[in-house]
Amino acid sequence: MTTTAPGQQARPRAAIAAKTLRTDNWRRPPLTIGAILVLFIVYATIRLFMGKWYVVPEFGYLTPIYSPCMFEDCVAEAAHFGRPLPAMPWFIPLGAIVFPIVAGFRLTCYYYRKAGYRSLWASPQACAVQEPHAKYTGETRFPLILMNSHRYFFYLAAVVLLINIMDMVLAFRGADGNFGIGIGTLIIVVNVVALAGYTASCHACRHAFGGRLKHFSKHPLRYRMWTFISKLNPKHGTFAMISLWTVMLTDFYIMSVAAGWITDLRIFN
């Protein structure tokens, strides 16, 4: 390794005219992830503004895209926390409470930052690939400076996850109001597990339990939680992508049952 003596100017970087010397198909990962993100954004936007087919009252199914539903024009069976808010104009959907939270949490997530920067922002596009931007400012200017709000979105997303868990419990209901299990119940459970894995493996969650501690020995419970989350953390990207698909699958299944396109297959009651 070559070192530079004090006062001596560092050697200039090698002059390479090519945009990159990489020979692998480095465009595939960012394009694939970018396409998945765009698909989710389009799907979620359409469903948000449909304003219907989001609850199956007889089985307690409620899509996560509309939970919690607290507006006056929400279906009564979907309003688990009541309907204290007035009806909104058409351009404010029923999912306006939860969607800004989960969208903000995912948008500012470290994994999605990497995916978004490489797929949509093109800064950087990939390792050892020339950037199209003339100047790199990192996350010090608008709009990227908003990424620093991730930890605050985490706390809000944790509350939403608790609501999703409550919705999952309510989904164990049969047509007669007693305990029951259907295919929709299992899909909702899988979705909640994926969302819990994504939220718990988050860097902000790890910091919330173990950050700013000078002595782990004085906080054994927080240390155990920090250790557990640290083991989940390497899978954060996996949970991030899986949970996108499970949210869409859960919503589409509940929409299909609510619209009468399909019948929920009951396993018990």
Task: Offer a quick outline of the entry.
This protein is mostly helical.
Task: Give a structural overview.
The chain is mainly alpha-helical and 269 residues long. The protein has one domain. The chain has a two-stranded antiparallel sheet with strand order 1-2. It has a two-stranded antiparallel sheet with strand order 3-4. A hairpin with a 4-residue loop joins strand 1 and strand 2. Helix 4 packs antiparallel against helix 5. It is globular, with a radius of gyration of 23 Å. It starts with 27 loop residues before the first helix and ends with a strand.
Give the tags.
mainly alpha; 269 residues; two-stranded antiparallel ribbon; 8 helices; 48% helix; 4 strands; two-stranded antiparallel sheet; single chain
Estimate the global geometry from the Cα principal axes.
globular
Strand content: under 5%
Order of helices and strands: HEEHHHEHHHHE
Major sheet description: 2 strands, antiparallel
Averaging pLDDT over every residue, what do you get? 87
Fraction of helical residues: 40-55%
Instruction: Please report the number of helical segments.
Output: 8
Q: How many strand segments?
A: 4
> How far from one another are the termini?
71 Å
Radius of gyration: 23 Å
Unreliable stretches: none
